[in-house]
């Protein structure tokens, strides 16, 4: 089937964004399940690492929800989550290499996400770039909408302009 | 965990992923080929889950049984979730969504093998 032209809906969960949401959902599930097992079965062995796993899971869930919902609020939520995620993977990645004793068991973010093909390191960067692009798109649409509204008020709006049913 | 099931599931997952990426590159939506591939993958995973479930019921226990069962259940849901999520995408990116789900499925199948063959069983 060829891709239909011009019918693509915008938003953070459409197009490449849908891929991003899929990857985030996978990581939310993976990190969440891992943290649940670790916390339930051997919390005493490495409490810091396991609590970090749980934090990572929460961040991935929030980012997934924010990207999937979209809109101004969704974008803001996802922006915070992706920023925390990037900071987390950088800090935990560095610390886990400098002081392996502090991280006796792997977390999603250990060694910059080596255990997950470094996807945890790339993912927040892609997320932030996508959010910036979406914010620009939204700002452009808003500006266009205002322009059209102004033209309409002046009686010069084109027949097929936005806001005309 | 029979090698035949593991290898055929891996091969089908990689083929579905390649077909998905190809449709994205060709700026096309996913078609019947992708759905058929995902269906074959799903059948293989269900058979694998039944085989592994029977082995578990027969008394064989991997060292991390809870994790193993979690992966076993999760991997069966993945192609279904991938197909549903990509079917709601009307653009060429549907193929990439399916490719991500297929590749994650392949990784999870091999993680299952790892968990099953881990020492200490």
Structural class by SSE content of chain A: mainly alpha
* Helix coverage percent of chain B: over 70%
Number of domains of chain B: 1
Percent strand of chain B equals under 5%
Order of helices and strands of chain B: HHHH
Oligomer: heterodimer
Q: What pair of chains forms the biggest interface?
A: A-B, 21 and 26 residues
Task: Kindly report the average pLDDT value of chain A.
Answer: 83
Radius of gyration of chain B: 15 Å
Give the tally of β-strands of chain A.
0
Q: Regions of chain A with pLDDT < 50 over 5+ consecutive residues?
A: 5-9, 155-165
**Over the alpha carbons, how many angstroms does the gyration radius of chain A reach?**
21 Å
The global form of chain A is elongated
Distance between the termini of chain A: 30 Å
> What composes the largest sheet of chain B?
none
The backbone outline of chain B, from C-alpha atoms, is elongated
Notes on the protein architecture:
The complex is a heterodimer of chains A (165) and B (121). Chain A is mainly alpha-helical and 165 residues long. Chain A has helices at 16-42, 47-69, 71-98, 119-154. Chain A has one domain (16-146). Helix content of chain A is 69%, strand content 0%. In chain A, helix 1 packs across helix 4. Chain B is built from 4 helices and no strands. Chain B is 80% helix and 0% strand. Chain B starts with a helix and ends with a helix. Classes of the chains: A mainly alpha (165), B mainly alpha (121). The interface between A and B is medium-sized, with 21 and 26 residues.
């Amino acid at each position: 089937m060829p891709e239909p032209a011009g019918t693509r809906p915008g938003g953070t969960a459409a197009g490449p964004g849908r891929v991003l949401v899929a990857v985030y959902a996978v990581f939310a599930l993976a990190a969440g399940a891992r943290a649940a097992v670790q916390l339930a079965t051997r919390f005493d062995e490495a409490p810091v690492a396991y609590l970090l796993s749980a934090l990572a899971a929460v961040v991935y869930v929030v980012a997934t929800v924010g990207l999937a919902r979209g809109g101004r609020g969704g974008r803001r939520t996802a922006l915070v989550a992706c920023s925390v995620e990037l900071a987390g993977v950088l800090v935990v990645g560095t610390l886990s290499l400098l002081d392996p004793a502090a991280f006796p068991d792997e977390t999603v973010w250990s060694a910059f996400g080596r255990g997950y093909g470094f996807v945890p390191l790339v993912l927040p960067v892609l997320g932030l770039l996508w959010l910036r692009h979406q914010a620009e798109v939204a700002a452009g649409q808003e500006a266009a909408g205002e322009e059209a509204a102004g033209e309409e008020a002046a009686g010069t709006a084109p027949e097929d302009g936005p806001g005309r049913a | 965990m029979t090698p035949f099931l593991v290898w055929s599931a891996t091969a089908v997952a990689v083929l579905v992923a390649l077909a998905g990426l190809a449709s994205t590159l060709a700026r096309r939506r996913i078609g019947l080929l992708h759905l058929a591939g995902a269906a074959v993958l799903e059948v293989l995973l269900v058979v694998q889950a039944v085989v592994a479930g029977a082995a578990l019921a027969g008394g064989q226990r991997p060292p991390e049984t809870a994790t193993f069962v979690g992966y076993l259940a999760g991997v069966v849901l993945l192609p279904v979730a991938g197909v549903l999520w990509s079917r709601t995408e009307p653009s060429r990116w549907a193929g990439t969504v399916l490719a991500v789900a297929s590749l994650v499925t392949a990784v999870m199948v091999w993680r299952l093998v790892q968990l099953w063959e881990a020492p200490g069983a």
